[in-house]
Amino acid sequence: MKCKVEKTKNANEVKLELTIEAQKFDEAIKKVYFQSAKYFNIPGFRKGKAPMNIVEKYYGKEIFYEDAFNEVVPAELEEALKENNIEVVSKADIDVKQIEKGKDLIFTAIFQTKPEAELGKYKGIEIPKIEYTVSDEDINHELGHMQEHNSRLISIEDRPVEKGDITVIDFEGFVDGKAFEGGKAEGHELEIGSNTFIPGFEDQIIGMKIDEERDIKVKFPDEYFSKDLAGKDATFKVKLHEIKKKELPELDDEFAKDVSEFDTLEELKKSIKDRIEKDNEQKQKYETEDAVIKAVCENVKVDIPSGMIETETEDMLRNIETRLSYQGLKLEQYLQMMGKTAEEVKKEYEPQAIEAIKSRLMLEAVIKAEKIEATEDEILEKIKEMAKNYGKSDDKEFMENENVRKYIKSGLESEKALEFLVKNAKIKVKENYNWQKIAQDTHFTYQKAICETMAERQKKQIAQEKARIEKKNSAVEKETNNILPFKKRQIFA
Asked: Which fold has domain 281-423?
């Protein structure tokens, strides 16, 4: 095999030109012929017994080319990429230049390659300190769940349906006078107030009595998953069979004994608090790590190839499919319910895919920059843990698997890189503001300022009034002094 490598004008893209020896390609043709001979039915020969040259003459000499190409090329491409240390992130764009029996196979393959992230500031990144406290409300919330789980249903026969009741109903829905698919059920349990039905449906069940029949009129939401029903008026014929009500156990020491290993309610509450605190610790850890990753990624420059995004969104779609299978659903059913295609869902996940890819590339860049390595002991310990998780008593299978070792090594180094980033981040403690005190202080300051302003104003007014009086007195005194001599003159004249 001959391989010529060149970069294309596009970033993170490489072009390989491979020449595979004629002998190797001819051998692949023969192999394909023997694998598929049994399917050929040619006149004059028993089925599957016609010689290769006869098959080629009958169907054309190119009959085996495509399968022979697929037989020989993947391994040759893999070897070429490995020899040239090229890590690809996309499927190959193949262009066959020469394909003919007895001649060298020549083709080009264009791949998108894995980019390297250019790090900005990654040490000393400021992030807010993330803290969670356990409140009485949190504990009571958990106790409420335990009450719900240990509740019992009692039949109600002496009153109509109320909010919170669990009803057993038959129903059939009609749009434009015609029954629609999926709109009928018998013996269906519906909790009134759960909001699991179309808006307005459950409210109209309230007040119904056992064995009562009622027409319930609703309107499907405009954004309803079924386009045939979205925004349409519908009528449901409903018959009520049963009314049930949840009876919750009392929250006391007896309850604690029944649902746990504790003898008192206080002990149970403490256990719940301890568990929530432990969960909060993990939550704080993960959210702190996420905050650091996000902050560092804001300073990263990287050109992410479309092939990486495509692969990532496909993985996300497969994860959805896996989760759905646990619920007994197929991906096709989910897409139909959502009224979307697989491509539309993948498109919606693109921002998340880009964020995930950028995070991984950033961590790889940190690993390289800080020369972070996983030790052999750490790798072996992780392999043993993996074997145990898979129920394997012997970890030899994992030890000898190079792909497993590579995967574990990469994971360990990424964990170390993340620990490094968190350790070197500046965790800023949020100031705990007492808004009530601040409000009170602000009000006090405001009132004080008003008082001081008023006092200053009064002081000024007093001074002005004093000055006015003094001025007036001065004028009076002057006038008096002018008059007095005149009077004196008259008296002593």
From this structure: Trigger factor, domain 2 (1.10.3120)
